[in-house]
Amino acid sequence: MSAKFATENQLAKSLKDQFKNKIKEEYVESNRIKISTSPENLKNLAIAVKELGFEQVMSQGGTDYPENNVYRIEYHIICVSKKKLRSIIFSIMTEIPKDKPEIETLIDVFPSAEFHEQETFENFGITFIGHPRMERLLLPEDWNDIPPLRKDYILPGRG
Amino acid sequence: MQNAGMNIEDKGGDKLVLHVGPQHPGSGHFRLIITVDGDYIVGAKPDPGYVHRGAEKMAEYRDYIQNIPHLERPVIIDATGVTLPYVLAAEKIIDVEAPERAQYIRMIMAELNRVISHLYWLGIYGIFLGHSTMFMWPMGDRELFIDLAESIGGTRVTFSYVVPGGVRNDMPTHFKERALKTFDYFEKRIEEYKKIFFNNPIMTARTESIGIMSQADAIKLGITGSNLRAAGIDSDTRKDEPYCLYDRVDFEIPTRKEGDSYARCIVRLEELQQSMNIIKQVLDLIEPGPIKQVIGGVMRGEPGEAFVRTEAARGTMFYHIVSNGEKYPYRVKISVPSFRNLIGMTHLLVGSKLADMPAIYWSLDYWPVEADR
User: Fold this and answer.
1) What is the pLDDT of residues B320-352, one digit of tens each?
2) Smallest CA–CA separation between B356 and chain A, in Å?
3) How many domains does one find in chain B?
4) How many CB pairs under 8 A join A and B?
5) Model pTM?
């Protein structure tokens, strides 16, 4: 453990003490922490991150990995009010199977995730269970194709 | 987008549903679905997506250089603000670093773009409040800053100036004199802006105590940029996590406690002065040297990912780039400030009067094209 990233390591360690082997530390480096967990445990992890002092979801997105048959879902969480934590982006991620693209919403933990989750819903077809408005936000209402950010959607003329 | 069409629904009783936009002058390509009960707004639902082009998907079909002009499109008004974080993230993937002089020139361009973007916002806000002088003055003064940026970047608006490894070309030798002359003029103009607009009772009556965003709500909803600072939080990525060489310059973060429309306006006005202060310091600090690290061949990086955020004109601009070692990025996720501030619009509009809608709407500096991407 390097003393260089003392705050980052301390934050990651407090979560590891709490969750033991339920979480996996992807990496801890300068101002960046990334922790992965199982889909069932994501909400508990989010609550723990909130208790550490992180306040809002700056970004939430998905990535399609067809070779592993999974979608990776990431939340990038920041703190704006406490000077000590401001420089850190806390990322929590999980992977869900492509044949059952469902996960529990985090908007009751972080209300700022609302539109981000809607965007991930329309771009990947991932349903966030418990989200009050699982409907299209940016895509046109006459979009009649698979969700566009999936890798099997090929941009017209680029196939 | 949902329920296309312009219609006024009768919800029974005294409630009416009004569609504001997407052709509303000034709103941009964006629709607000507002429910009013008499004069008061009881429901507001933003409907973005009219200018959604799928920039994130298209970025997967372009290499790291082609993506610069591509990702500039959503926010041409703040072109450096949107391309700088992308380039910083691409540099982490490709593993190059720009030389010192290039970092300083990037800061000059980023701050010039912030001024250009804020002046555009101010002009449109004047129109929204029916103050046509406040439209013409900032739009005219904005040209001076566009001229400065043009002398560096080569075009008026879409510079595509910041590239992985540095900047495209050096700045002209006479830039410092020209910039200082413009700043001298503009600092006097800011005082005139205050006299005619910011201290004008007609303006203050329409914005003070209108659309109040509390500090707790701003944090909870994920509000960013000037809107967050107007609610009393001095968060600015340039200080929180300094990029380029922002840790070498001294500047203040303007904040207000009130959180109303007026606070959001005055914070942006003060940011104009801070941006000029930063450029002045950079012009003193900058020294001759290389402006670019030349990268041979096609840029491709090791498999991995990079997260970068910077302070664009409207707030924190965040990029998450995933690379699998190919020449095209595997995934580009852009989290833009306008999209995150959108959630605040519903929050502020409900409970206010319909007549206050323009004063609240544009005080958030919402840019539909940026939000839709």
Assistant:
1) 999 988 888 999 999 999 998 988 888 888 888
2) 25
3) 2
4) 102
5) 0.90
